[in-house]
Amino acid sequence: MLKDQTMSVVVDGSPLKAMQSSHSHTAQSALSAQELSQEIKSFISGVDTVQGRKLSVREHARCAVRLLRSVPACRGVVLEHLRGVYDEHVSAFLHNLETESDASSGVSSNLEDIIQEVHGVLSEFICLNPRAWAPLVSTWAVDLLGQLSSKHAGRRVAPHSSSLNELLQLWMSCAATRSLMEAYSQCLAAMLAWCPDACVDALLDTSVQHSPHFDWVVAHIGSAFPGTIISRVLACGLKDFCSHGAKDQGLIVMVGDKGSRVPKIGSVVGILGHLAVHHSDSIRKELLRMFQESLIPSSPLSPTSSSTSWESSPQLRRAAVPFLLQLAAMSPNLFGAVSAELVELLRPPVLLQLQVLLQGLPREELDNMLGLAVHLISQSPSGGSRVLRFLADTATPASVIISGPTPSPHEGVREGCDRLLQMLLLHLHKLVFNRSDGAEVSSHHPASSQPKRVIPFLEELQSHVSELCAETLRLERKRHLWLHQLLCLLSVYGGPSVATEAFCQLLTQAHNPEELALAWQLHTTLSSCMAGLIPAAITRCVAQIHTHTLGPRQLRQLLLNLAAAIQSQDEERRGAAGVQSSMAIQVGSAVSGHLHDFGPLLLHGDSAVSHATVRLLSCSPLPRASSPAHLLLLSRAAVTHFFMALRRRVEGGKVGRDGGQAGEAVNCSVLLLSRLAAYSPLTLKAVLQQLVEGALHRGNAGLFGGQIADMSGAPLPAPSLSPDIGASLLDINCRFGTIVNFSGSVWSVFHAGVIGKGLKVRTDTPLPDPSGVMQNVQTLLTVVVQCCSSSGLNGSINSSRPPSDPDEPLPINAEAAKVIAVTMVENVCPDVANGELSWPPEEHARTTVERDIHIRRCFEAHPVLFPLLQVVAAGRPALCYCSAVLRGLLATLLAHWEAARETLSTDYPWHLQASCLLVSCMGEGQLLPPVLANVHEAFPHLTPFEVRLLLLAVWEYVRGNGPMPQKFVFSSEKGLFCRDFSRDGDVARYVAPIHSVLHKNIDRLGHLCWRFQL
Amino acid sequence: MGDIRQSLLPRDVLSAAKELLYHLDIYICNMVQSGRQPPQVDSKTQELVEEFILHAPKDRNTPARRMSALQELQLLEIMCSCFQEQSRDTVRQLMFSALFSLQGNQADESRMALLGKLVSMAIAVGRVPILECAATWLQRTHRVYCVRLAQVLVDDYCSMVPGSGPTLQNIHNASPRFCCQFITAVTTLYDLTTEELTPPLELLQMIVSWIQDDPGLVLINFLNTALSGNQPISSLDVTPLGGLVRWCVKAPLAYRRDKKAGLTNGTAEGEPEVGPLFSALHLSVLQVLMLLPNILNEKGLYGCLALLQMESLAALTSDLSRLLDQADKHTHTSSSTDARGLSQLALDRLAQALQVAMANGALLCSREDLRAICSRLPHNNLLQLVLSGPVLYYNNIHTPPLAFSPHAAHSPIASHPTHPAHTPLATHPSSHPQYPAQPFMAGMPFPFRPSH
């Protein structure tokens, strides 16, 4: 249907062919004056004057072409006539499409050849004399194109004007419009050399007149001549803008009426918008070039000035910046293209030039520009953060101390930026609060809800909240005020999510109280319009913790900040009534709701984090109700952390660095544990149990002076059995007694070494620093005592009654002590057999030798057991539950003293000490009456055998008067359980050996006699 | 005549114009028959023409009616046949001037536009009466407008429509008077100062062939016009001689400049050389000048009428000296022999033209005057001879007549024949003011240069 081969004459731009054909044609049709006269008459009347019949459209057009060739005066009328022909063809073409019939294609092809002919003639003329013909034809073609496209825009087959590509396709498949387009392109190509403005002007005018149906033309032309069209279009727009004056336009745009009064700039925007699809790069370059060249002080011989030479007119140069602003205001596309790089361009020298340029403008124009710029920034969909940073950098006063990324510009520039920034904030403020009003209304009337007004600038900044926060927290002079204000606006704009994020960021990034105060300020501002900010923020922080998005430093800072927030509450309670009271409480309650989420952080690999966590947890209130699982986890973590803290303190003490912090961590940990223990019986139990277990744990034993003894001699299941399948048989055989486990039975076999090689070598671990051990043991005891004495049954720490006498230690809670006791037994005495409370006759002890040895070794390995035993003893009647341990220890001691060959008990310091402690504990725990309990005082002065005698007496007593908890009664006046020994059997018969020993050694023990009076 | 306005108003544009033409025809016929003097249309009629034919806006609040291009063509066609059919020259002439003589108002623009189209069309379709009328119009109208008309025609036939040159060529046969006036206008328009003001080659060829074929063509208006004192001020020259002399003299320098520009562009290939054309033209001009004495004597004007104006010669020499200066500057770098040859050619042609014109009574001045206006020109043997004039042999031995030029001191003695009878200094008391040594302002604007 389309005759591409004929069209190609012009398409491939070979004017030679066209010229040849036309020349031959001219030769044929050299008409005489007479004939020409006839021809004119025929043309005018539309009737063949010779034959007297009506001319067909085709013949008429032929006639016109002949006139065009031979009568110069007729060119205007011929071109006008040809409009009709082209129109006819377009109509036929569209009709064809509409009816989709190929039958009538003859009509269109009829006219198509005439259009080819016309096109050939025109392009020949243009080739021969572009100066004369190009302006004429280009105007004609553009005008006709405009006319055709608007006229036929409503046709059924014509696509909607918005679908530019389809339009382009349609019109380019029509011979008439294609030919016009080509003619125009040819003219343009010719004219660009000498008067580009004229043809672009015509294009713009037509575009205005026939918009939007004409857009396809502009798009096509633009993509054919992108470089020139863009700069020309801009230059035209600038000239027009300059002549119209920029003032009223600014107002129009601000009102929202888009440039209906200013024709050119509207079409400039439209055209550039079309071109932006494929040529956004060159558009951007062109716009930026315009900006830059407008700034260069006018020099008469600018090497870059092209033929447009708008650069040479100072007036136009001055108008360039307002023009670009205006352009940007009207087209988000263009603005988006430019804004990103524009900021990069605004280096100090450029700013100075800009200032010089703008100084010349009248005040109200400047105000308009300022308003426009503010409007633009607030509407900019991308690069907002860069713009903001630039503005803030530039507007920040120069300072010796803080040097921004850019060297400080001129003071005038700085003030300008300052003003711009403030205007921007004001503008955003208006926008945000008007908008939220609307949102409220819509929430009241959901039916009439209108879409929220979007503020692209804020929209974009939402993703930069963290950077904003970081900038704000730098607390530089004015900058943080601006940014803080912006953060508030952003929070209000973005709603709870953004507010939460901002708040979170501030909490995470603040490093000192001043910075943290910004967060409170933000909260104060937002609290009026946003509820539940703090809980949401805390939840968010927790979420961040869970997702590990925070680095250790940030995490630590966050925790510390939260702790500081909660502690401010305490301070406030002490009398300093602050604004933060409600907030601190809120933070506290919010944190308390998430304690179990913070718990795992206690065990964070980074000591700083765990320290911060313990700080937070130790000061945060405990939740009213919490699930046992959470509590158990938390307490487990807390205990583990406690030991970690202890270890760190030891290490820190060695290194000497951050010992203070480690100490503080221990203190916090102690506080946390005691509060946890006080929280509920469950936690109390858990904490104590784990404390004891932890203290006895291999890893922690060293802290408390324990030595990890090689227990392989004890009937513990050998851990190396299963993995050692491949070990040598000899090796296994050497491990005597490991094949068959006789543990617990009478036939237990010791494996204390290979005969002939002496005892097995104990691994010697270096003894830890005794003072450190002392301190650790003290700390542990403090914790345990605090836990036990905090009367956990009474509930939280808040309701604990203050001790009447601070020097008087609180009584140890019996339940708590029982927990310790039970735990100790479990850990020290692995064999549940013979675990009953009541004691058998001493001879029976030989059945439990192995177990007893294990128990003794435990005590040897863990010196901390004795102090714990003392605590248990203090919590009567808990010591009863340690019966098995006591018995085992006592049995081994008896065996030791029996076998001891030295003359003095002091030759066996450990055993002596153990015996003393054991007896004193039993006395404290009221397992023994005072008379018997005091025997330990005599031990150091006795021989081993005598010691054994006394211990045997002790055994005998306990066997006779079993350590039963039910023998204890609660005495309310003491607040303690007490045992009434009078109800037990006569003590006297157990005292006899004591007295014998006294008599034997009366020279040394005289001073102790009174201790053993009944 | 004024009362028909009311009847014209309701008509459409074309028929109103048609009707007015019809009435105008009748009105002028009546006027001629009644023998009223002076035969001129009154201002009422003029207004009607402006309103209904030229469509000048009558006043602010009524928008001017406009014709479509087709209507305009129809009107032109009607005018063509109207003038064609009018048998009486006087009526036709009066009618033409009623339509197209300039009134100095804002209708003149549309008048000129319409005139341009009409003449262009008349050339195309060979309407001799219109061309005759246009020739008269060209004689009476201010040269600015004449030049504009010439410009329109040149654009139409020499640049816009390729292959239409022969049509224009025909005007020589159709209307020699128009052709002559056209040459005058064209030579006035194209003064070879810039590239834009250089005649198109086609036009040049045409003019050369016209004059070669019929040298008398140049003088035809001079012959046909009864020269009275009422020659309109600032109209075109009576003959194109002055313009042609300027062309011939300046051509070597002007075209060299063009050629240089063309060479840098690399587009001057294949262009026919213009040098021979100008040589031929120069010869023709000299021949025409030689024809003059007889004609002038016949008319009794010999020695009374200067066909070459002293002022235009002065302007020419100053232009020429400027061009030569420029050429000197450029020849420092380029091949100087060629350049010097061209300069000498220009000066030779000037000298020849001056001599022949003076000898044939076309230029009325003393040699003193000539020396004054030629004092800035560089040395040229022929010019030296012309300026020194017929010198007696014995006089030469002692002192050269006037040492007006440093080059003159060693000039050879004039040896070419002079007219012993012709002693213009004696017969004519110098009617021209004495020219100062430098009376020309080089930057003086050409007042009717087309403004594009």
From TrEMBL, chain A:
Residues 34-242 form the Integrator complex subunit 5 N-terminal domain. GO terms for cellular component: integrator complex. Residues 264-1005 form the Integrator complex subunit 5 C-terminal domain. It comes from the Eukaryota. InterPro entries: ARM-type_fold (IPR016024), INTS5 (IPR040316), INTS5_C (IPR029444), INTS5_N (IPR029445). GO terms for biological process: snRNA 3'-end processing. SUPFAM superfamilies: ARM repeat. It holds the Pfam family INTS5_N. PANTHER family: INTEGRATOR COMPLEX SUBUNIT 5. This is Integrator complex subunit 5.
UniProtKB/TrEMBL annotation, chain B:
It comes from the Eukaryota. InterPro entries: INTS15 (IPR027844). Residues 408-436 are annotated as: Disordered. This is Uncharacterized protein.
